Queue: 2 jobs
Job 1
Amino acid sequence: MAKHIYCHIPFCAAKCPYCDFYSEAGRDSECVSRLIEAMCREISSYKADDVISTIYIGGGTPSFIDPAHIARLLDTIRGRFTAAEDCEITIEVNPSSLTEDKALKYKAAGVNRVSVGVQSLHDKHLATLGRLHDASKAIDCINILKETGFGNISADLIIAVPGQSTDDALEDLNTLAGMGVKHISTYSLSIEHGTPFFARYGDTIEDLVPPEEERRMYHTLRSELERLGYIPYEISNSCRPGYESRHNSSYWEGEEYYGIGAGAHGYVDGIRYAHPDDIDSYIGDPFTTETEEVMDEDSAMHEYPFLKLRTSEGVDLKAFAERFGREFTDVFGEIVRENVNKGLLTAGGGHVRLTDKGIDWSNAVMSGFL
Ligand code: SF4
């Protein structure tokens, strides 16, 4: 089976106050070069007979660093593995650091999909989120990518920001759709422990954005995306037909991927692992990993519905039986019945899926299968 590669670029121009991804601000260019060198050493250590069907360069902020580093990573991957002819190669970019020159260099390096951290097209919400760009920068960024010839552009939006109305978010969707963006992700703002937002909003977020209001906004936007011709193929992701993120879809299929770089997670040869969140230790030894879980057949079978229920396809009963040699209903019949009775799952046509109400309780429903 083909595999996938995720490269983590753990650098940002500044830390956004809501972010709990592993990245650091304030590192110099020498540190960046040493980290890329270490990532290339890691890539070169893997066995070369895998065919790679998707590569995702995420972060952090990949567009913050010199694009020559991105080209070097991709060259190293292609030198070590066989990249499939239709390999999807995605890079995440921020409007504050993308330039025309960088876009051209990504294209020359073989990148064929760009995910833009738009977050909002309203300056006041971008200011609340502590982002470095304003709405016009985000629009410029998408235009630069289009002019460079990128046809497969994705945009991330954050919803349920304090002070944001549903109309503001609807306006953002319509602008992005009008610009020809092929894929839109909408993530509700979550207040994570240890972030500046936790200190600012930890006690008040539910008063500022009541959970039922956040849910209403989510479902209104999902319907609007459908009206605009986007298919909501996963809880937070919608796209024009044929523009699903193949890389992210591989996670929901439970496929294996190499996780390259400090803070990256991977899943290879049945083992889920993580590199420590530490740039300096990674530079010193890019092979150190912490094993998170050995995925035996039983764990994989329980994880399968946990992952697949995120998607609008849900669990395909035939595919499950082919993969695990058991009927889904023999293994999970009781939990499916319970959730169907509560209106959280629907079963029919050879699939088990979350209902709209089930989406609102997705964490609890999906965890029940583990
Ligand atoms: S740019 Fe992205 S990764 Fe960097 S701090 Fe902001 S949200 Fe986090």
Job 2
Amino acid sequence: MAESITIKKPFDSHLHVRQGAMLRAVTPISAAKFAGALIMPNTEPPIETVEQAAAYKKEVLAAVPGEITFEPLMSLYLTKNLKPSEIEKGFAGENGMKVFAVKSYPYGATTNSQWGYRSILEAQDVLKKMEEIGMPLLLHGEVHLNDHDEEEDPYDAERMFIADVLPRLLETYPKLKVSLEHMSSAEAIDFMEKNGEAGKLVTTVTPHHLMYDRRHAFSGGYRALLHCKPLIKTAHDRERLRYMVKKGLPFVSAGTDSAPHPEAKKFSSCCAFGVFNAPVALEMYAQVFDEIGALDKLEAFLSLNGPQFFGVEPSTETITLLKKDWQVTEPVVTEEDIKVWSVGDAKHGLGNEMLHWQVQQ
Ligand SMILES: [Zn+2]
């Protein structure tokens, strides 16, 4: 049994760092353990121009401690305002400002997603341009509202997208580079196992969808810290996900979807969507890979497959994880004294939850 593992410093293919004081509190946490990340554009206002992406990148880099190298890859939000010319400009990296992806959220889905198209298929000009130049499309693959504006069952949202929208999208734009983000259902996993291809159709996996199923989410009342979209699903879905990552497929990579919220929003009666996992994500991935006997697949999943899709080099630095129990007991606190609780913490988690791997200091 391995007691430690040393891998190239990981890359997070899906990270929310927010803005302002929250950004300054959470960015150093990811930067300490990851060499870089694809930064999500669902800020307020959303990132729709290369100029906004450049300013946002500057804000992220300013929050990275001086001694650390952290490469934020910036993305644009697929809103109705997003212009094909802006995508082209960003992808070309004019004036040293490269944009690496465009993110699509389903209408009405999750935090700050109200600017999206009702259906991704409506964004024809944008998709055509992306296909032409090779700009990756990152998909939050869920259907939330039907044609009559009625809400769909949130547990079916991802499988509806997989059954209907995704095949049509791939058929209409056969050369489009696509990443299906945060897979959560057996149907999505089946689809990706059949159709996934490195550099063309890839997928990301969160630590919380690997670690938990809905028994945890409903353990002793509903667990706000596990409330996210896509919802944490059944034990079967989780097993299916674990079985897939164990295969070490080159088109599957780590995307934490770490998504911090202030305590007041997370623990309100209508708790905000998003799992904040930056303080424990790497450790959770290592724990699951250890449990399924796949530690030999961990480096490709964490550190190689993501950079390869975005066309950047993997890190030249390494990080070592040790098999050693520990627990999160304190929240992250912003400079405005706002508490941000991470998944797995002893107080709001599932109670005395132990993490079995930790990063060597
Ligand atoms: Zn996200």
